[in-house]
């Protein structure tokens, strides 16, 4: 099996990779469905508010007229989710979680809001659970109570309430493949190449020394910079490129749709191209020869990915951007789905015994349960187990 | 076993006489009490030990029997085991051929195959015995031996092992029998002594007491009978226990007593299990590097820390594993072009599951 074949078995490739068109259509469908949901919910709420005494015909009439609700557009939704992705990153940094936890949490949010709209579930409520899940998937677990203590005015119930919603939205796949570790691998190889120990991809005939010489002769990224002359200088160049590329992966790659549209190696390669194009294309030469059709195809994809990265929302939004987000949030306040406001309550209702809202169970049910439990305990202790169920007498054959 | 009935000597009526005269030097057992006759499997002519020493000590020489003239070596002379020289020869031939054709029944698919094989071998043996097509037959045997050297040696080793097992078993049985015999003797001795003691006690009682003599005799006899029967029972019990233990023995090696010494015929030999290969969790799938050659050592400032820091190395952390993973993730998916590969698929998926999930989540 080759690396590509293995990647094709991942859920990220199978379930979470899209073409730009499908991604757009998916978002608009989600938005449409959410708008319909919001409208019908608001309408039924209003009908309720108008009083149960109203006649049936009147109600039906009221339902057919859709209420004037100013819903979010796809673009507004996107901005809002992007804003909360930023918030997630801030929160993860505040908690001192490692980068992969932050990146996974952001991707969870992005994935969740592919099939769900902020109008249905507010990102602010989904954010904690996304981070909490990310700590678990990325092997950085902290207890729920400690986690909730880091958030203002948030109880453990509030954190955990949307856990099933998020899991469902993630289609029960928690694995996110990040380009970060791949970038480290790439830099390990670049350093090896610079020190004359690197090897090209299988199938390319070049010695390590030749590669080292070539590498020294790679033109500088910017015209005004001096040409590197020794492997040591190349190494320091690699170091600075590494830091810049890492920063891109930490911010632009997460905030854009790059994860949906490209594979992790493509993302870090384009980050490398963005930072230092001559070095990146030299590196690609050692992997795929210029003449192969694969190379041109890859370059097209990498250029597209570069554009995606460049056009990503800024990680440090300006005043205008913040103001716009506040405006969207205010707008959202009016068009939220009223059925989905109380996530804690919904979570309770889904669980067993959730029907009674005050939490006190019906005494009869409690008694019955207790009796059943005792009985089963007794039977469990019995050496020969419970008595066999009585079978109705079979009809004898004539 | 393969004695021909009535065949005691070449001329009936003068039985034994021919046996005792060396056909070469004509000396007889009458003159030499310790005379031994030897034969050579080359021609099977019989002669006495002194003749062999005399003629063949100085190297190979032709057979002294008139009309034979084969070259014989002293080394190959041996004692005649069977009386009939023809059978002796046949046994030799069989032994030689069977050493080569030592296939076992387990090696054959069906019994018929095995029997066919046996028949083939039998034909070869028959040819050799009756001296028909000897050269051709010998050639066949030699060719077979050359072709199947490994199987022959393997089966030979197996047979050797079996014979060792059988010898050990027989040895164990013998040992058991010896012990039992010793026990029996001891028991007998005890019984005898007791009887004598009883007699002595009776006489003493009779001499010392003044009661009825008949009553005393009866009483003592009764006591004796009681004692001996108790003893017999005890012995019986012990024997039974022994037998039980013997039958429990799964290999039956220690089966000593006649009752427990039976064996189940036709037991299949346990086949030696093949040596299991190392477990391969990937089921033979190997990772092929398409884009890179993995190196043993990578430079990286913080990898060097991990390599030397005892806090990390003590726990068994392997930097190589990290490097392999990083290199793998660096290139896993470089050649996956989502737009090309998934363009068609996503349309179908989107209108299916994803939208359904969205619809469900968005509110009924």
Strand-helix topology:
The complex is a heterodimer of chains A (398) and B (364).
Chain A: H1 3-8, H2 11-15, H3 20-49, H4 56-64, H5 74-94, H6 99-115, H7 123-137, H8 144-149, H9 156-160, H10 163-169, H11 180-194, H12 208-216, H13 231-250, H14 252-255, H15 258-261, H16 264-275, H17 277-287, H18 293-310, H19 319-334, H20 343-350, H21 363-381
Helix pairs in contact in A: 5-6, 5-7, 5-19, 6-7, 11-13, 13-16, 16-17, 16-18
Chain B: E1 37-39, E2 47-48, H1 49-56, E3 61-62, E4 71-72, E5 78-79, H2 85-100, H3 111-130, H4 134-147, H5 149-208, H6 213-248, H7 301-308, H8 310-313, H9 319-331, H10 338-363
Antiparallel strand pairs in B: 1-2, 1-5, 3-4
Write up this protein.
- The complex is a heterodimer of chains A (398) and B (364).
- With 398 residues, chain A is mostly helical.
- Chain A folds into 2 domains: 200 residues, Cyclin A, domain 1; 131 residues, no CATH class.
- In chain A, 65% of the residues lie in helices and 0% in strands.
- Chain A has 21 helices and no strands.
- The relative contact order of chain A is 0.10.
- About 2% of the residues of chain A have low confidence.
- In chain B, the strands form 2 sheets. Chain B has a 3-stranded antiparallel beta sheet with strand order 2-1-5. In chain B, strands 3-4 form a two-stranded antiparallel sheet.
- Chain B has 10 helices and 5 strands.
- Among the domains of chain B are: 63 residues, Herpes Virus-1 (2-Layer Sandwich), CATH 3.30.40; 59 residues; 65 residues, no CATH class.
- In chain B, helix 2 crosses helix 3 and helix 5 packs antiparallel against helix 6.
- At the A-B interface, helix 1, helix 3, helix 10, helix 11 and helix 16 of A face helix 9 and helix 10 of B.
- Chain A: GO terms for molecular function: cyclin-dependent protein serine/threonine kinase regulator activity.
- Chain A: Pfam families: Cyclin_C_2 (PF16899).
- Chain A: One of its GO terms (biological process) is regulation of transcription by RNA polymerase II.
